[in-house]
Each structure stands twice: as C-alpha cells, then as structure tokens.
C-alpha cells in the first residue's frame, strides 16, 4: 500500500486528515480521478464520473474548512452512488440501455443526506440492469471487472457491481449499494469489502429506483467496518417520503462497536447448510468461527426452520412478482434493448396472481415468526458470504444465483454484514456473513469490527492496483 497516495486512505482516515488540515479535499479528489483515469477503462466500475463538479466541490470544501466553516466530519470526502439512486437533473440509467437518457426528476433522500454532510459525489457506479441479478453482469452497459484478478475477467458481484469494484480498486473510499436479495453483500464478499445490509426502513429508499419494494434497502460498501458503521449512522433515520423509516427509531451503533464479542452466543451453519460450499470458502469460514471463539464468543450450531435454499426460492418469487410490477412492461417488449439474462428473472412474476402474491406475503410473515423463535437466545447467525469465490464471467450460469446465503436475510427482514475472512489460493477474497435480527445492526457491526481487528484481511490491495 502506498502511504503517500491519499486514494488508499479509508473514508475515516481521509476525513480525519482533512479535518486536521493534513490533506486537502482537492488533493484527494485529484488522486481518485487520476486512479479512475488509469484503471477504470479496465475495471468499468463507473457509469458516469462527475469530474468538473467533484473538483469544484473539493475546492469549495477546502476553502470552507480552511476558513473554519467545516459542515461536519465528512466534509470533502468523496463517495460513489449506485446508478439507481436519483440525483435531480442527472442521468440515472438503472443499468438499462433503454434508460440511458433518463434524467432524474428528484434527488434521493440518502443522496441529499450525503451532500448535506459535505460529501462529494464523484460519480455513479454501474449496476446490473434494474438491479436484478447477483452476478454483476450487464450485456448492454458493460460488466465491471473484479479487481482481484488482473488476468481473468471475474464477476464483481451484483447487483451493486460498480460500487464494489470501485471501492476495492481504490477508485473511491466508499460507495452506496442497494440490497434486495444480496446486492450489497455479494459484491462486498467477492471484492473484499465490508458491506452492510440494513433492516428495511433503516435507510430511506425514497428516490431509489425500485425493484422489489418490500425487500429493497440501500447500504454502505466500505473498506472497514467502522466506515460502514459511520456511514450507516449518517444515513439512517425517519423520512416522510418513505413510511417504512417511521416504524422504528434510529439506533447509533458507535457506542457498542468496540465492546468485543466475549459472552455473545453465535449460531453456526449446520452440516446440511455446509454442503455445496467451496472447500476454500468453508475453510476460511471455519477459521473465522475459531477466531471469534478465541475472542470469547460461544459458537453453537443453529438450525433455522427452513434451509437457506428454501428461503431463497421464496425471495426469488417475491422479487420476480414485485419486479414485474415495476418493469414488466419493459421486459415483455422484445423491441427494447433489455438484457436477455434479466428478462426471465423479471418474467417469473408475470403469471403470479393477486391471490398468490398475498399468500406469499402471509407465508413470509409466518417464516419471520418461526425464524425469530429459532434465533431466541442467539445474538447472531454466521454463514459464509457466498458459496464460492468470484467466478470467471465466461463460466457463469445465468439461470442460477450466487445469493444462496444472503436472500434469507431479506425474506426475514433481518440485517447482515459481510467482512473479509480470507483469500483463496488464487488470491480471491472470501467473506464471513454476520446475520442479526431486524434493527440489530449494532450487534452485526460489533461482531464484524471485533473480527476485523483481530485479522488483517482488509489491509490487502488487489494486485496491480497497489500503486
């Protein structure tokens, strides 16, 4: 890692340096833009880069901070937004060629909160079309490349593919993704990041293009758990434009972040759930469990009422049903340039009746009740982040999903964090998945922080991108 290049600083480190006047936001933005110029033609993380605007904002932040008028601790820190998040007057494509000239009619609540905190939106990150897919591929707009393999085009994970690739490649210190069935956590797992799937309603989805409105939730993608916690804390809170945010009061995770895991009871995957997991992923998972036990946690096998695959199938049906409501008219039109990998996923909802949909929601309520009972007495449930490390794009079976362990969290309206827990022999990241009850992000972040501090996985940089 190059200590002289500010592009390699985490968001928290950059913010501290800016506030201490050791670093100018102008120098930080220039360093990031230089890396984007050098590497993004290959990585293809960005759908749009706001060069002139970012520089202008950085200059304004520099002058304000030097004059003693800093807005707050994040003034002058750049961030990237997934290209389904509206910013009034700017293009938001949703990853769709059909929407390549779509001008945002409004600014998403979360974008407004970031800007009000003084952050600089450096650009929009690429996504799977309509955010519908876990692999991170996009036939018409281009598929971001996983930065951890300089030779083979590997999946960055989806649907927040550009968000994950941009942060991993040190093109931006952090980014916002969205998660409907794993779309923050899969790219975070495959790109070696901390990624938080917040409980639905914790972070406003107003102004974010919907896929499945009873599942969608935005979340931070960062290079440290502390950055994820701080960004989550900034974004959470009530928003009249999103009624789901009014159901539960905010909960600051920071007072609990460094409390450690001693005395916590953590559930681990059964033998049945371990089947089909890549050997290297499983070895890293087992080592992570051992480390948490060494830190004082008590880890015991936990069997949920249904398998991850069963929960996942139900999520797939719900995403298809609600996704068809939102964009089915587009995917049904053969004349439109819609990704042929995305059409059948949305098409799953075409024949679902109102009766079937309401029955599915009732089944979900019952599953939430029985899963909550199974979790009684446990502080969290641990699984691998994904079944395998990032696959080569050329070898992906688009009829399958990589969201094996992630979808159950969306279905049950829980929250979860992924953190790096190792690397394959080929140098690809693996991840630990920390699952907690709804509205218990503080515990997920606390566990992730304790594990992260006891290991050094997050300190690695993708090959060829370390200078």
**Number of helices in the DSSP assignment:** 14
Encode the helix/strand succession as letters: HHEHEHEHEHEEHEHHEHHHEHEEH
How is the biggest beta sheet arranged? 11 strands, mixed
Q: Indicate the proportion of strand residues.
A: 5-15%
Q: What is the highest CATH level, the class?
A: Alpha Beta
What is the CA–CA distance across the termini?
7 Å
Gyration radius, rounded: 20 Å
**Helix-strand category:** alpha/beta
Strand order of the largest sheet: 1-3-2-4-6-5-10-11-9-7-8
CATH architecture: Alpha-Beta Complex
Low-confidence stretches: none
| Total individual domains | 1
The count of β-strands is 11
- Measured as a percent range, the helix fraction is 25-40%
CATH superfamily: Amidase signature (AS) domain
Specify the overall morphology: globular
State the CATH topology: Amidase signature (AS) enzymes
> What's the rounded overall pLDDT mean?
98
Summarize the model shown.
The chain has 467 residues and is of the alpha/beta class. It has helices spanning 11-19, 25-43, 51-66, 109-116, 161-168, 185-191, 225-235, 271-274, 279-294, 308-331, 343-347, 354-374, 407-411, 441-454, and strands at 46-49, 78-82, 120-125, 174-179, 194-197, 217-222, 265-268, 298-301, 380-384, 415-423, 429-436.
Label this structure with key terms.
single chain; 467 residues; alpha/beta; Amidase signature (AS) enzymes; eleven-stranded mixed β-sheet
